[in-house]
Amino acid sequence: MTRPSDGRLLFLICLAETLSMTGFAVWPGLLPQIQDAWHLSGKAAGAIGGAFFAGYMLAVPVLSGLTDRIDARRIYFIACLLAASGCLGFAFFAAGPVSACLFQMATGAGLAGTYMPGLKALSDRLAGAQQPRFIAIYTSTFGVGASLSYWLSGRAGTVFGWRGAFVLGALGPLLAGILVLRGLRPQVPHGATRRVSLARMFGVLGDRATLGYVAGYTVHCWELFGLRSWIVALVAFSATASGGSLPLAPASAAAAINLVGIPASIFGNELAGRIGRRPYILAVMALSGSLAWLVGAAAGWPWALLAALLLYNIAVMADSASLTAGLIATAEPARLGAALAVYSLFGFGAGFLGPLVFGAVLDAGGGKDSATAWFFACGSLGLGCLLAPLVTRFGRRAAP
User: Fold this and answer.
1) DSSP H/E element including 396
2) Which of 29, 167, 201, 214 is the most buried if burial means most Cβ atoms within 10 Å?
3) pLDDT per residue as tens digits for the range 225-240
4) Residue 35 belongs to a domain with what CATH number?
5) Is 0.70 surpassed by the pTM of this model?
6) Percent of the residues in the chain that have a pLDDT greater than 70, as a whole number
């Protein structure tokens, strides 16, 4: 197999990442429909949404950590099969919260073997000054995949029902796995001679700069995945409560809003490289944490809500690539897989808790039909980022 050019390599991995995520947003995209059909409380619905990230959190130490010893393309292919099986299991066997959580966990575990291992596959095959830019483009592809999944789930849910939407969500990972396995040349990873252990994996936190990026990514994911898990339900509530009309269906609106965040991530990384990553990230987090409350305040007015969500998603995504590029720049190459595993473990662990806390706050505030409940639930997303100066103080060593 010939070595692909850097541009072709980036395109191939980004395309695979987009396809691998077709099942990512089927649950949040069809949450109002399934919540009504199963008579779910906000807490139960949040738990099912969070189960996806729990599966990711449990699987990522193994799947991402192994990429220091095993070619990431092989991990990627197996994970795609796991993601597809989770979607198909949900489509044919899910009948309530318990079974739904189990299949969501399987799908999330599949993402654990594609997102960061895909980044590892890219970084193992790429070096030089363009690496941070390519990393920013790759991490932004997550938003493309999420938007595609929201849009597909909304369309498929209308035509085929929610079970048919999960079947469609299984097709993308299967295509992605074949694309990566066949399209990437074999590569011996940098840490292939080192034994994988939990002590070695978590030892990366001994570096204060790495710890700072891990802490920053944790509060970022709390906010990002809490928003993505509930955005369709929030838009649907706003339209119903006000009796107003929207130009797009809630799932399509969520897809469009997610797409707008993609250039914010790429250009944010460029700006951070010029003014310094740490001050840039802290400023962006302060902005996004404040905008979370603005979104909650606008919940009862559809057009105001869409505008607030647009601004909020831009702010949420503006530091995404900067955090990941900073981690890769500070991590030892032979331990990069371990660093990415710990980074994802804490980030997606927060991604599990964020939707669950959101749902619990929604219930405590009066339920999904209360504008006050949505205000406090949305505000809960921004709490971590508003405290960012405290949780990142351990990363004070200057970032590269």
Assistant:
1) none
2) 29
3) 899 889 999 999 988 8
4) 1.20.1250.20
5) yes
6) 91
